[in-house]
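Try this one yourself first.
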């Protein structure tokens, strides 16, 4: 999609070059700067291309080209995997052009820049949360844009990644028999991330942690919810076996924390 977008931008700039009167503040003609930047971009000299596009903004600051040049510079940084620079320029674009016609694209590219820096689940998920914030912006402010479908997909993936990171911490505490700390992490997944791929494991581990503490009502209720919603899950088979060994069975009780937070409209 980005290749199509940049092609459209380039065509727009070429079309404008012949009929847009501009007051020049440069020794170089604007078309010369543009052609130089476009050539560098084509050669994948991304950092040099970005700098040249920014020269249009610097040397012709009051032209209609300036807005497009800032987007093109950001795109060049993005293609060169200079994500922090891309985010910096795109953020500046959103501040300078709060009603710009490329605002949806700017937010999308910021989201993509954060998304491509997401760390593995064993590390801090700051970038995943920032990516999620931008994808939500797309879906809330630009739901009919060309970027909405991909933003929705990436949003779900970012959420799943965040949930996976929380599960990793929960497993860490559970393995060390720090069950209260583990339960708090599984609670977070159960209450905030019920639609992710981690939910059946979270329900099983939540149940198992309470079973280890001898608090059977929560353990049985969590297992019952797991069995009702994911009867074919390996995690349900696992926790059913654990309860059976303790002389218990899955049984849902309404006056439990998990019953109160479990959504039935997922």
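Now uncover the answer:
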């Amino acid at each position: 999609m980005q290749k199509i977008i940049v092609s459209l931008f380039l065509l727009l700039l070429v079309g404008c070059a012949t009929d847009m009167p501009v007051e020049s503040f440069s020794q170089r003609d604007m078309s010369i700067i543009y052609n130089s930047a476009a050539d560098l971009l084509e050669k994948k000299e991304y950092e040099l291309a970005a700098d040249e596009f920014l020269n249009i903004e610097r040397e012709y600051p009051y032209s209609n080209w300036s807005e497009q040049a800032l987007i093109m510079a950001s795109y060049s940084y993005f293609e060169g995997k200079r994500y922090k620079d891309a985010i910096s320029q795109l953020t500046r674009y959103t501040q300078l052009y709060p009603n710009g016609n490329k605002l949806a694209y700017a937010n999308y590219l910021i989201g993509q820049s954060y998304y491509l820096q997401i760390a593995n689940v064993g590390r801090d998920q700051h970038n995943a949360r920032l990516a999620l914030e931008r994808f939500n912006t797309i879906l809330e402010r630009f739901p009919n844009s060309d970027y909405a479908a991909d933003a929705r997909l990436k949003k779900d993936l970012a959420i799943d990644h965040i949930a996976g990171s929380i599960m990793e911490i929960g497993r860490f505490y559970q393995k060390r028999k720090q069950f209260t700390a583990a339960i708090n992490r599984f609670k977070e997944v159960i209450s905030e991330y019920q639609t992710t791929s981690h939910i059946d494991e979270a329900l099983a581990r939540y149940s198992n942690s309470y079973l280890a503490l001898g608090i059977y009502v929560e353990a049985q209720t969590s297992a019952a919810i797991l069995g009702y919603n994911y009867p074919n899950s390996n995690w349900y088979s696992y926790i059913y076996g654990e309860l059976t060994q303790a002389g218990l069975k899955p049984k849902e009780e309404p006056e439990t924390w998990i019953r109160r937070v479990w959504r039935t409209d997922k």
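Discussion: The two ends are 31 Å apart (CA to CA). The longest helix spans residues 148-175.
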